[in-house]
Amino acid sequence: MNARADAAAGSEAADFYNDLVKHRLIIPGGVQGAFGRGAEFEKVLEAFNALVSRISAGDGAEFCTFPPVIDRRIIERVDYMDNFPDLCGAVCSFFGNEREARALSEKIHAGEPWGGALGMTQVVLNPAACYPLYPTLTGTQAQGGRLVTMLNWVFRHEPSPQPTRMQSFRVREFVRVGNQDDVIAWRDMWLGRGVDLLRSLGLAAQPDVASDPFFGRAGKMLAGNQLEQKLKYEVLVPVNTGDKPTAVCSFNFHQQHFGSTFGILTPDGQAAYTACLGFGLERVVMALFKAHGFKTALWPDAVRQRLWP
Amino acid sequence: MNARADAAAGSEAADFYNDLVKHRLIIPGGVQGAFGRGAEFEKVLEAFNALVSRISAGDGAEFCTFPPVIDRRIIERVDYMDNFPDLCGAVCSFFGNEREARALSEKIHAGEPWGGALGMTQVVLNPAACYPLYPTLTGTQAQGGRLVTMLNWVFRHEPSPQPTRMQSFRVREFVRVGNQDDVIAWRDMWLGRGVDLLRSLGLAAQPDVASDPFFGRAGKMLAGNQLEQKLKYEVLVPVNTGDKPTAVCSFNFHQQHFGSTFGILTPDGQAAYTACLGFGLERVVMALFKAHGFKTALWPDAVRQRLWP
């Protein structure tokens, strides 16, 4: 897009944000990308999440959920800080004595920066819904591999005025562990199923190959490599603007990256292959409000019946 | 308790943790107090949360939810760092260039501390379920005040081997805003209702006055003052041990603290009074597993029917 189109798209995104606020679907939280969600927003989010459960009920996925913070060693071991250091959220706390606490208090009351008084804890905000699962899978998997689904809060340090670009959001995630053929077949099955699901809700969903926002110049090469090998797909839906659709579902094939990092083995002793897919739940909800209007009572009957059967 | 009783209680808590793990109700996450929750655990948590909604449906509370991270200025304005600096979770990220990113990467791969490479972001982990609500209430309230309910993830930096002492957990929260009489009457009504609710689930619930874990020597005085003025109540239930019950629900009367800090005004122009109560959802779930065993199918019929009517 040229600069004028960019500005127009930005203003369209701002209008959409203001509409969401006006209808109390989101509640401004003082910082970008960390707003509250209203009752009607949550009602749609829960209904979509339940719909995902219904259409995948026959797959036999095991459900669990992890808290928004995870073991810091996970992001150290998966090289997250090499690839996305600018997006990380490390949790720091105060480890000092009473005198140091008084100095900290004075700094804060004087409006001065106070990060220097803190130290790192053992936890970081979870940057990818599937990360906390892998260290729990260490060891030899059963024949046929494993399928797990989760609903986790995820953090990315990327404040933005676009409602769809949040610092903190929920992902309904599925992770498949197994041999290469099974994992790729599963990913391909879900790519079709995900597009069908979103289209059944009246959303103009389109799949595409994609890449992650790797940091720096070296990151450009990694992103190129990811595109070339088709390791990442997304399903895109118009949300903020018609011109530039938003990814509401993303699929990553990790090859043996997590299998070898965490010692997740197939029955023949090889590092297992893994793939995951995640629905960005808030983005799906926003896409529905964009497509069908801000009052769920006025949504098309077919959409309402699919969400609330 | 004496030292021997303490050690026995610690070992009973460890046994309970191991039982929860064995039945895949919780999934160890590598660090204390940040474990995953299994499917059956979540099923009970959702059922209890829905039960809370049912018994309070007539109150007309407005529902919303806030993400696990909130505006850093909130904890600065409410003096959180004066009172609980050791419990805070400030979110730090990397703001450097490519050269600095390479240095960070080298530190991490060498196993060295890397917190010094980070800077504070605009967000912190939310330490109290009700905090993000107050800045959204600035201004004059309608006659009769306001009642809001939320389900928020809360963070406290207090790693512990006790399953009930988590770094990250969910709170089902209610906040009442209004004049002093209305707010106190509402708090008292819920104190009775909360005890009744927990007892109806077969839990030996007992209310008590309580205090917050204020930091340092000055904190001891604040805690004493809080007890004396009966600003905080808790409902306690045996979970880890019979001797030392665990708070599963807590009630705070804030007087005009938030009303004056955030300019929340009653129709006559006074700073509003506020009170809140929150159920620690994971603790309630653990109390139920402790009281009735690790298989929900074998729980007493009366409890099952109350949770899954």
What does this structure look like?
Two copies of one chain form a homodimer. Chain A has a seven-stranded mixed β-sheet with strand order 3-8-9-14-12-11-10. Chain A has a three-stranded antiparallel β-sheet with strand order 4-6-5. In chain A, strands 1-2 form a two-stranded antiparallel sheet. Chain A is built from ten helices and 14 strands. The first copy, chain A, has two domains: 3-69 and 78-88 and 127-307, BirA Bifunctional Protein, domain 2 (2-Layer Sandwich), CATH 3.30.930; 90-125, no CATH class. In chain A, 38% of the residues lie in helices and 24% in strands. In chain A, a hairpin with an 8-residue loop joins strand 1 and strand 2. With 309 residues, chain A is α+β, with helices and mostly antiparallel strands. The radius of gyration of chain A is 21 Å and the shape is globular. Chains A and B meet through strand 2, strand 3, strand 4, helix 3 and strand 5 of A and strand 2, strand 3, strand 4, helix 3 and strand 5 of B.
